[in-house]
Amino acid sequence: MNKQTIRDLPASLAGRRTLVRVDFNVPLDAHGSVTDDTRVRAALPTIEFLAARGARVVLLSHLGRPKGGPDPKYSLAPVARCLGALTKRPVHFCVSTIGDDAVAATQRMADGDILLMENTRFHAGEEKNDEALSRAMAALGDLYVNDAFGSAHRAHSSTAGVTAFLRPAVAGFLMEKELDYLGKAVAEPKRPFIAILGGAKVSGKIDVIEALLPKVDGLLVGGAMACTFFKAMGLETGKSLVEPDRVELAGELLERAGFRLTLPHDATVAPAMDAGSAAHAVKRDAIPADQAMFDIGPDSMASFARAIATAKTVLWNGPMGVFETPPFDAGTRAIARAMADATARGATTIVGGGDSAAAVAEAGLEASMSHVSTGGGASLEFLEGKVLPGVAALDER
Q1: Is residue 352 annotated as a catalytic residue, yes or no?
Q2: Alpha helix segments (H runs only) across the chain
Q3: 377: annotated active-site residue
């Protein structure tokens, strides 16, 4: 990674307000309590590192998608309480995001204190990368750290615009780790390099397929998106989700990829998603006209697991089926277990965020992966070779 990180900052940050963009977009229950603190815990190494050096740590984050201004149900106040329970340092919350009161709150901080500002998306200018808002955010700090990889693909005021008015601007530990794992996977993977792509639609993964095909030794495709490829092969897909306008492209990809692209050999089908009791496996050329594929079949699970077992680098993005609805979670769980086994054998295993990360966490296998990305959309765009505005804005080494 050619961007400066918090390792490049002075050893002492005493008295310096360090504005840190984190990703605290966490789920809350009806009572306003955080139900999954994974993203909060992921930011702790950066927060603790800065605070230990005397920095006054000022945190910015978004939460949810508030419409038209402040909305109490999207307040970050519960997240401040969650953070306070995870660290022994004083954690304060500011009901403002910008303005005189917010600046005054940062100036009252003691060295090593942590202050979480209110939701950045309570300001309409955030998602428009508004210059005035960016300037107001810059007034909250004396230097800037971006540790929110999950938002790095968005050119917002708090992820990119603020750096025009606040330097130095460096990466936090989580940002560094994300770019390091994903960057090495694409640029210099240990081989064999196997990528696994799933999810509902080919259209959402076309750019990733195009970017990865020249680099991988094998590309395994599962999920409903496999049905668009089946259609391109002239197979019956029944009531399965197919993108008619992508069938021709799927055929071209199959022809270009040759033996490197592997589709499921069988499918778990049912008359409807809520008819799990009727689920059964069929060969891919025997999908009934009145049924749909909701998961890969057992032969495919075994075949994909064997391919993963041969790899030194494995990258996975997208579930193999409707993993939220048993029994259509079996394929996704099989991939998670195969990747955990590969990690144990010394392979580098990377889960590319989003639904895949959720499935791995649900299976209790998060700690059995080399790296689980915190950014679904950001990791996809990075793998596609796109420039992430939140990364591009940081200082070069």
Answers
A1: no
A2: 38-52, 77-86, 100-107, 131-138, 173-187, 206-212, 225-232, 247-257, 298-309, 330-344, 354-362, 376-383, 389-392
A3: yes
